[in-house]
């Protein structure tokens, strides 16, 4: 099976540059294992150290400078890879003012070039662009209407995704941007590519799914759940714009009622699942989250859980991105097309109905998928 070529939009951001450093590190170690990957135990047919990286970013800095600037990794972890990082082909995106059709043409040409340079790899597109204001693609009947009425400057994700699919390249949407509408999913079927998303489930939401699934299994009633996130990276700065944060907040909120099977706060006439994101510069990429879960047991007796997590956004995200690229390479090789709900484990939001919701269901779906691919 072919090794993945990650083609990343937003390649020099906090997550993208950490993925680039990990890809270089995998090559340096020269071993076909990488302990941080979940796929490592079933991907013995894929030569992981041959994983390749290319993409686009508006930043013109060298990749090694981008890694340094993001401050996610101490120098000792990427210093041996500087030469390799700086040979990665990361291009400037098309001018923001060009329309969708022209952007898709230019990006498709870039993708064709990347594929020609890596003929023995399976290309996988990964969307790591910044969060943007919510765009409701569902309201359109045809992509031509979308191209006419929306501007790539407001929603560049669509141009990248359509270009990837036009080139027969599978798509991973790690962002909170709502690109997987029925029109785009239909296009994925027609282009014979698998597509997955939305919004990587890296830290707080991941553990919330685990705890909510455990409380549901015990029939403990969740009366309210308050979640606070403080983060100081560029993603956090971007999310301090309420319009750009609204998609992310919805993804961080919607899943809980679905897991539990009832609206949290129904006795109060309003949702008591509250999620807040605060941009707090001293934290950088080392995000912190606080959770208070109010719940009731037999005789309605109240109890509560408090959780404080001190995690690292991009350190958690980078191996998930590589894992997803490996899944997509294997799924493409197996002939899978369209949206892949079995990968819900990796995402906050399942944009298609019928996706597995509890932690147990998501793990089981992933294991079955791995079994099918073996
Ligand atoms: N880190 C996590 O744990 C996590 C979890 C879930 C989702 N996400 C999402 O992943 C995405 C990436 O996160 P990040 O922390 O790397 O963000 P970031 O802001 O550090 O990186 C985004 C990169 O995109 C580049 N960019 C902007 N517009 C572009 C364009 N039109 N074409 C090409 N490049 C462009 C920027 O220059 C920047 O380098 C965000 O949408 C974030 O919400 C991150």
CATH architecture of the largest domain: 3-Layer(aba) Sandwich
- Report the total helices: 13
Overall tally of domains:
2
Mean pLDDT: 93
Low-confidence stretches: none
What is Rg?
Answer: 20 Å
CATH topology of the largest domain: Rossmann fold
Q: What is the percentage of strand-forming residues?
A: 15-25%
Helix proportion range: 40-55%
Structural class: alpha/beta
Give the total of beta strands: 11
Query: Which ligands, by name, code or SMILES, are bound?
Result: nicotinamide-adenine-dinucleotide
The first-level CATH class name of the largest domain: Alpha Beta
Spatial arrangement of strands, main beta sheet: 3-2-1-4-5-6-11
Written overview of the protein:
This protein has helices at residues 14-29, 63-70, 75-78, 82-86, 100-117, 143-149, 157-166, 182-190, 204-217, 234-238, 242-260, 313-333, 359-373, and strands spanning 3-9, 52-56, 89-91, 121-127, 171-173, 194-197, 221-231, 273-279, 288-296, 302-310, 338-339. Helix 1 crosses helix 2 (63-70) and helix 9 packs parallel to helix 11. The strands form 2 sheets. It has a 7-stranded parallel sheet, sandwiched between helices. It has a 4-stranded mixed sheet with strand order 8-7-9-10. With 374 residues, it is of the alpha/beta class. It folds into 2 domains: 3-200 and 314-373, 3-Layer(aba) Sandwich (Rossmann fold), CATH 3.40.50.720; 204-310, Dihydrodipicolinate Reductase, domain 2, CATH 3.30.360.10. The radius of gyration is 20 Å and the shape is globular. Strand 1, helix 1 and strand 2 (52-56) form a beta-alpha-beta unit. It binds nicotinamide-adenine-dinucleotide. Nicotinamide-adenine-dinucleotide binds at residues 9-10, 12-16, 56-59, 93, 128-131, 156, 174-176, 199-200, 202, 233-235, 238, 313-314, 316-317.
């Amino acid at each position: 099976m072919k090794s993945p070529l990650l083609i990343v939009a937003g390649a020099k951001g906090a997550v993208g540059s950490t993925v680039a450093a990990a890809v270089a590190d995998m090559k340096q170690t020269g071993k076909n294992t990488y302990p941080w990957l979940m796929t490592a135990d079933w991907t013995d047919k894929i030569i992981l150290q041959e994983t390749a990286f290319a993409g686009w970013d508006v930043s013109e800095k060298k990749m090694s400078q981008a890694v340094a600037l993001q401050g996610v990794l101490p120098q000792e972890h990427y210093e041996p890879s500087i030469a390799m990082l700086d040979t990665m082909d990361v291009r400037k995106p098309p001018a923001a003012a060009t329309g969708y059709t022209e952007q898709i043409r230019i990006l498709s040409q870039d993708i064709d070039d990347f594929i020609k340079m890596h003929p023995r790899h399976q290309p996988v597109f990964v969307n790591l662009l910044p969060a943007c204001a919510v765009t409701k693609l569902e309201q359109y009947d045809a992509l031509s209407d979308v191209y006419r009425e929306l501007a790539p400057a407001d929603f560049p994700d669509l141009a990248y995704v359509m270009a990837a699919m036009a080139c027969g390249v599978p798509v991973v949407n790690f962002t909170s941007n709502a690109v997987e509408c029925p029109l785009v999913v239909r296009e994925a079927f027609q282009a014979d590519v698998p597509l997955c998303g939305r919004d990587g489930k890296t830290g707080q939401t991941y553990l919330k799914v685990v705890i909510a699934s455990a409380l549901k299994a015990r029939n403990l009633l969740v009366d309210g759940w308050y979640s606070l996130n403080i983060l100081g990276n560029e993603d956090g700065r971007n999310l301090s714009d309420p319009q750009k944060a609204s998609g992310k907040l919805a993804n961080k909120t919607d899943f809980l009622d679905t897991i539990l099977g009832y609206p949290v706060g129904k006795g109060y006439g309003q949702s008591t699942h509250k999620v807040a994101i605060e941009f707090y510069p001293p934290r950088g990429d080392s995000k912190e989250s606080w959770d208070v879960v109010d719940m009731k047991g037999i005789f309605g007796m109240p109890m509560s859980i408090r959780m404080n997590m001190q995690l690292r956004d991009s350190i958690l995200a980078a191996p998930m991105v590589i894992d997803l690229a490996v899944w997509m390479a294997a799924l493409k090789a197996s002939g899978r097309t369209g949206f892949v709900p079995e990968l819900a484990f990796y995402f906050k939001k399942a944009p298609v109905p019928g996706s597995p919701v509890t932690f147990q269901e998501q793990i089981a779906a992933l294991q079955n998928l791995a079994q099918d691919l073996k």
